[in-house]
Amino acid sequence: MTRRRFGWPDLLFGGFLIVVAAGTLVATRNLVGGTAADMGPGYMPRAIALMLLAFGVFFAVRGVLRGPVGIETVQLRPILGVGAAVGVFALLIESGGLALASFAAILIAAVASRESRFFEVILFGLGVTAAAVLLFVKALALPVSIWPW
Question: Which of 33, 39, 49, 73 has the least CB density, counted as fewest CB within 10 Å?
Answer without folding.
Answer: 73
